[in-house]
Amino acid sequence: MAAVPRAAKILLPAVMLAAFAAGCGSSSSTGSSGQPPATSAASTPTATASQVGALSAEAKSAATGDIPDTQVFVTYSNPSAGYSISFPEGWTRKGSSTDVTFSDKNNIVHIAITKRGAPTPAGVAAELNALKRSNPTLTFTPAASIQVKAGPAVKATYNTTSAPNPVTGKRVLLIVDRYELSKAAKRATVDLATPKGVDNVDAYRMMISSFRWL
Questions:
Q1: In this predicted structure, what is the pLDDT of residue 61?
Q2: In angstroms, what CA-CA distances link 97 with 29, 34, 60, 78, 101?
Q3: Domains and CATH numbers, the chain
Q4: CA proximity to 128, closest of 189, 85, 205
Q5: Whole-prediction pTM value?
Q6: Which residues of the chain have pLDDT under 50?
């Protein structure tokens, strides 16, 4: 069982990390423990030893709007999986130590830790092509090597379209920035997802910059 995460509150800064090399695509309240109730939200992928599934939106769930500049963040520390990351206070948390999701309806952050070596752009592209075979709505941009605070990483952006809403028939287009980075024999896949029309660029940039290996 994962250790109880420790949390330290931070505020989203007014001027985000201008020197950060890569942009990102793309709230209820909780106490300072950093442990919001673990209830279901949008669908989340399953991590395996070879790849991590793609996120998809929940057709019945409405987009919640942008994460505000005044949003309070808490730090989730996961010693058993070997990382920490900041996330918006009040978002739902679910999953196990190596497969954790934070979400507020269709705003989703998913972190999966697998036993794999360092990622490459070609490898990440191959993973996404494989996922496309099981989800034909998936499209993605070319993967590229970048640098984040935690070290070298590979980034790609993919989109998925939800099933139609049973009442309105509308579908939700989810835009997901995928980052893959590694330490020793562990690889972290961090998916930062937001529905089309919602701007979480600054918040998600801060979140991937907050990722640390423990």
A1: 77
A2: 22, 15, 28, 7, 10
A3: 10-213 (3.40.1000.10)
A4: 189
A5: 0.80
A6: 1-41
Q: Distance between CA atoms of 124 and 29, rounded to whole angstroms?
A: 35
Confidence (pLDDT) at 59 = 87
Name the nearest CA neighbour of 88 among 167, 20, 7. Answer: 7
Residue 14 backbone phi and psi in degrees, to 5: -70, -35
- Determine the 3-state secondary structure of 192 from DSSP: strand
* Residue 210 tokens, joined: 């907050």
Distance separating alpha carbons of residues 24 and 64, to the nearest angstrom: 18
Cα angle, residue 93 at apex, residues 82 and 141 outer, rounded to 5° = 75
- CA dihedral defined by 14, 20, 26, 32, rounded to 10 degrees? -50
Comparing CA positions, the residue from 109, 115, 102, 108 lying closest to residue 51 is 115
- Helix %, strand %, coil % for the chain, to 5? 10, 35, 50
Q: To which H or E segment does residue 190 belong?
A: strand 186-195
Place of tokens 């996330």: 87
Tell me which H or E stretch contains 209. helix 201-210
Residue 60 is predicted with a pLDDT of 84
User: Tell me: the pLDDT tens digits for 89-122?
Assistant: 999 999 989 999 999 989 999 999 999 999 999 9
Measured CA to CA, the distance from residue 91 to residue 73 in angstroms comes to 10
